[in-house]
Amino acid sequence: MIKRAVFLALLAGALIFWVQRRQPRDLALEIDLTSVLPGEIAEIDVVVRRDGHALARHDVRYGASGAPGLLELNVKAAPGPVEVETTLVYSGKPARRVISQTELAEDRPSRITPQAGR
Asked: Shortest CA distance to 80 belongs to which of 105, 47, 49, 99?
């Protein structure tokens, strides 16, 4: 009887731990655009995917001042590897799509630097 209770308690504890690990959280993703000239990017479209499924999408248009040097986004997802598709829309130039891989983590923001082509 005691062995069965201990087994069930361990099983319940492991299940609670597993559910907590899989639960989506607000995780930080930073996109470093400091290599781009100020005012050069008029719009940025970011799609965050895991295993082919979209987790988040952010499409932001900027005025004449252009995009900031560091774009900070919140992604509601479980920690782990993701694919980040960034489309940079330039003022008067063709748009450029960049796909990056990163790891979302709870303890630190994940940072990507899309190589902005001229």
From this structure: 105
Amino acid at site 93: K
What does the mean pLDDT of the chain come to? 88
CA dihedral 68→70→74→80, nearest 10 degrees, is 150
Within 10 angstroms of residue 71's Cβ, the number of other Cβ atoms is: 19
Q: Residue 56 corresponds to which tokens in the numbers above?
A: 């988040």
The model carries a pTM of 0.76
> Which of 106, 102, 80, 118 is closest to 31 using CA atoms?
102
Q: Is 46 helix (H, G, I), strand (E, B) or coil?
A: strand
Q: What is the DSSP letter of 106?
A: S
Q: Is residue 35's pLDDT more than 90? A: no
For residue 101, the tally of other CB atoms under 10 A from its CB is 9
Segment 94-118, tens digit of pLDDT: 989 999 999 999 889 999 998 754 4
CA-atom Rg of the chain in angstroms: 20
